[in-house]
Amino acid sequence: MARSTPHVSALTDGEPRYLRIASRLLGELRDGTVPPGERLPGERQLAEHFGVSRETVRQALEVLRREGLVATDRRGSHATLPGLPVETPASLTFPVGARSADRGAIARATLVWEPPPAGHAEPLGLAPDRPTLVHRYWSASADGREVRMAVSSFSAVALSEVEELARYRDRADGRSAAELRRAYDWMRRAGLTLHHRDTITRIADAPSVRVMRRVHDQYDRPLELTELIVDAQQDALVYEFTLPAAV
């Protein structure tokens, strides 16, 4: 259960503005808008978000720090409310649509350092011919009734701020197996709050669907784009994912 303090939760019309902002920010921490352990936006972004001065934001954060609800280190402030740690497997598995292989299923994944596929560069803020980390995933069920193909491209922001991803640049030869199932956890551990936008469409004249996932951070900077195609010879397609529980 999240801790509370009467200094934050019981406000009246005569309370200082910074206490009102502390209360609103606490509400976002408790409803899961900012999950436990996530980095908070910077003072400037918070000031714009709440429509107040940076000094008011500083005072509000100080109230939450005194109550142990927010902690600050060299990379900024982060939420400390109890909840699932960012490194638990409860967050989304990369790439979108990947899952534990069925018995007898075949799956493979590779990484290359090359210009992204058509349609990926612009949303990621990359020049069309600029190379980046590109991940390709393929899997097939044992009976051949379901095939999944995914290609993912990462932005310069993701590679510069997520150490685990950056390490793959020199190993992205397209031949070695690549296991990035924890990629979203790595991003969150780097202090990035992930926002996913999934677009699912049917492919005409084929038993397939296309899922386009765009991921950006709390500053609206693009991080990753994945295009997944599921070809399933069955009546129903199940698209399943898990998010950390809100506090």
From TrEMBL:
Keywords: DNA-binding, Transcription, Transcription regulation. Residues 15-89 form the HTH gntR-type domain. It comes from Streptomyces thermocarboxydovorans. Pfam families: GntR (PF00392). The keyword Thylakoid does not apply. This is Winged helix-turn-helix domain-containing protein. The keyword Acetylation does not apply. InterPro entries: Bact_HTH_transcr_reg, Tscrpt_reg_HTH_GntR, WH-like_DNA-bd_sf, WH_DNA-bd_sf.
